[in-house]
Structure formats: C-alpha cells, structure tokens
Specification:
The protein has 248 residues and is an alpha/beta fold. It has a single domain (6-241), classed as Rossmann fold. It is built from nine helices and seven strands. A seven-stranded parallel β-sheet has the order 3-2-1-4-5-6-7, sandwiched between helices. The termini are far apart.
Length: 248
Amino acid sequence: MKDKKVALVTGAMGGIGTAICHKMAEDGYHVLATHRPGKEDSATSWIDSEAFPANLVEPLALDVCDTADCDQVLKKVMEDFGRIDVLVNNAGITRDTTFKRMNFAQWNDVINTNLNSLFNVTQPLFQAMCEQGNGRIINITSINGLKGQFGQANYAAAKAGMIGFTKSLALESARFGVTVNAVAPGYTATPMVSSLKEEVLDSIKVQIPQRRLATPVEIAKSISYLASEDAAYITGETLNINGGQYMH
C-alpha cells in the first residue's frame, strides 16, 4: 500500500464529501474517508451503497474536534501508509440562528468542527508532507465565508477563518512543494439541500445568475484539479464555485 497515492477526506459521508471520494478514487488514490467514532455501521453501509471502484475507499474513525484523537489516529495512518498526498478538509456543520439568539454551544460547536478541525487534522500531517517534497491541502470553505449570511455568524466566521488559514499555511509550505488552496462552493444540490421545499429552492436559484445549484460532482472536479500536477503553481487561492452569485 505504501507505493500508492493516498488522499484523506474529512466529512466524507456528506453530499460533497461522497462526490470527492468518488472522484479521488477515480483518479487512482486510495481514499481514507473519515467518520465520527461510533458510526462504524453507518460508514460500512455508506461504503457498500456507494460501490466505490476496486475497494479504493476505506472508512477511518476520526474525531476532528479532538486534538489528541487526531494526533493518535493520524500517526497510525502515517505508519500504515507512509504518506498522505492529498488532504481535503471538508468536515463541517451548521447551527443556524440569529446572533442575538445564539448560545455559546451553537457558536462553539461550529467553530470546533469547521475551523479548529483544520489544526487538529492538518498539524499531524503537515511536516511529513513538507518532508516528502510534495502534497496538496485543500480546504472546503463557503460562499458565506466571503460574503456573510444572515443567521450564520458562527458558520461565516469559521469559513472566513479557513481562508486566512489557507493563505498563511500556503506561505509556509510553498518552498517544500506543498500547495494549500481553498474551494468556496455556493449552494450545492446535496441530498440535504435538494430536500428543501420547491418554493425555497426557487427562492435560492433566483439569486444565482446561472439559475441553478452546483452539483456535488462539479465541486469534486475542482478538488481533483487542485490535487493534480496541473495545479502545482497554484497556492494560497480560493476557488469560487457559485454560478456567479458572489463575485469579488
């Protein structure tokens, strides 16, 4: 296994995460797809139902909010696989409410999962990626980390923080051949979004110049590009995929 390219994807079982895992497997990576500890049965069912090619996707129990767990699990990953070529930080949650009604738990849960996880997951792998002389770190932020969103002070703050993290880490890693970029999707047709009432979806689409949602596959293809050698000279960037909804 140590002679095969390895990609690690957090938040793997969501709509965008699943599409990323499919695309990375299609590109020939052995994909470590993280899930919350205690969700082993759900992860196995997900692997079976998705029918990934040639057993290239392997579930990995990892609590992205737990620094010690990440350190322990990812050290074992490095022992077993010898390298991580691509890290996709995709784990994220929402706890939407207006700020005047937001409690600290709603704030803290989102910051821990969406932002602190970047430290917890990236830090144990970063030095090894630099030492191997190449690697790709791709952070999934959001259109709302760029423009803000009513009722998402916690989420927008975390996603904006991801962009600052991306730029800063890119400066540290550039001379080692490791690129660090972010992808900022707009509204995407994940199962969760697609289950909204038709009138709600219509109200979203009318805000988008292309009048449609992104597909998870379109997001996954952008990750595939940033992970490729064709993108070796791109670092510190945020790729916006939002159908023209927010241009800056």
